[in-house]
Amino acid sequence: MTPPLPGQTSLVQGTFPELNPPYRLLLGPGPCNVDPRVLRAASAPQLGHLDPFLLDMLGTIADQLRQVFQTQNELTLCVSGSGFAGAEAVLCNLLEEGDTLIAGSLGFFSGKIAEIAQRIGAHVILVESEPGQPLDPQQVAAAFARHPEAKLFATAIAETSTGLLQPLEELEQITHAHEALFVVDAVSGLGGIPINIEQMKIDACYAGSQKCLGALPGLAPVTLNAHAVEVIKRRRRPVQSYYLDLLALQRYWNGDHAYHHTACSNLLFAMHEALRIVLEEGLETRWQRHRLHGQALRAGLQTLGLTLLPRPGYELPVLTAVNLPPSVSENQLRQQLLTAYGIEVGGGLGSLKGHLLRIGLMGYNACRKNVETVLAALEQLLPSYGWPVQAGAALSAAATVYSQEDQASGHA
Ligand SMILES: *Cc1c(COP(=O)(O)O)cnc(C)c1O
Predict the structure, then answer these.
(1) Does the CB atom of residue 109 touch ligand 1 within 6 A?
(2) pLDDT of residue 410
(3) Four-way CATH pick for 283-407: 3.40.640.10, 3.30.950.10, 3.90.1150.10, 2.40.30.110
(4) Considering only CA atoms, which residue is closest to atom 8 of ligand 1?
């Protein structure tokens, strides 16, 4: 028998060592470490996708999601797939070939709305902002004036490529003044920043499981109001995607449970437990927790002499995008964080590649220990790039934020 070539695995004598994945502190833009309760829930024995216990659980998860989204929307469910599956589902159900939409692109993630819509065959009117800047509502209004036929406007509330929090109120008013649907990507926002579907008058929204909701990747919560459902029901042609057909998924989730595809019971167990944790903590408390730790992290980074990408006042609490000085190699710094500290953080995407760190504090990971861990690691690493830092200064700046918070809430 010829021995395998170097780098080639023998298919004959297949004994393979057990996998022991390293422990990582996942402080990138998601996935993030989940509460051990979620991992325990996920390890329960599987169920069939038509098991009465599982079908019952779908109803519970839909109710939990309605509370987290703050909506009564009947069509509230999880698409099998990650956040972009939610994006595809919402867009390919609402849009038909030849329809016009206005896509508000703030960067990589909300930019994908335009790409997905283009693949559907829709006519995309793109309104873009500079990296780290919010959308200009006047440009959106001008796009509607030129394209009164636009069926929907879509953007993200939390743009994870630039750490930007996009205010929605004016955009919603412009969209509804033109009788179009208001569609929002809340993939990284849901569970971490205030999102209230009914108050914000969002017609259709998609989210992600592995970011601030604190579940495992592979499920995308979506919610559509009656108006959006009506738009789907009035389609001239069937939805091009069988797998992402929302009315069929609604039947499986919230209707007569007719088989549509094999939903993964263990991901659903994890989602159920993650949502229980979100609701136990309470939405307001959870948003406040993300706000506090984001603020402490930013204070520490700025004390290191680093600047933030987003326009002041528009910083996303759950993901901080920090500019790197030219002398600091993004790639090497991220490697060092990973190998020396076991910390994963994100880098720049597209034109920002090589110049940015993206540090996420999402869900279970939004805590003081993680803020101080990543700041301490950066304090240690940055001087080797010729970027002097004052030892302990970043941690002190973060500590000041925490003690001010304690005083404000009377815990001092
Ligand atoms: C992460 C993210 C996505 C994509 O989600 P996946 O789970 O990677 O498919 C989309 N939009 C935003 C704003 C995100 O942060």
Answers:
(1) yes
(2) 76
(3) 3.90.1150.10
(4) 83
Residue located via tokens 């004390």:
303
pLDDT computed for residue 5 by the predictor: 60
Domain ranges in the chain are: 36-279, 283-407
Query: For residue 109, which atom of ligand 1 is closest to its CA?
Result: 11
Cα of 349 to ligand 1 centre, how many Å? 13
51-85: per-residue pLDDT in tens? 999 999 999 999 999 999 999 999 999 999 999 99
pLDDT at 301: 98
Q: 181: Cβ below 6 Å to ligand 1?
A: no
Residue 126, strand partner residues: 103
**Is the CB of residue 83 below 6 angstroms from any atom belonging to ligand 1?**
yes
Q: Which residues of the chain have pLDDT under 50?
A: 1, 412
pLDDT of residue 374: 98
Nearest CA, atom 6, ligand 1: 83
Q: Which fold does the domain 36-279 belong to in CATH? A: Aspartate Aminotransferase; domain 2 (3.40.640)
Provide the b/e sequence for 151-183 (b: ≥16 CB within 10 Å): bbbbbbbbbbbbbbbbebeebbebbeebebbbb
185 Cβ inside 6 Å of ligand 1 = yes
Taking the CA of residue 86 as reference, the ligand 1 atom at the shortest distance is 9
Q: Quick check: 27 and 319 in contact, CB under 8 A?
A: no
How far is 327 from 345, CA to CA, in rounded Å?
A: 19
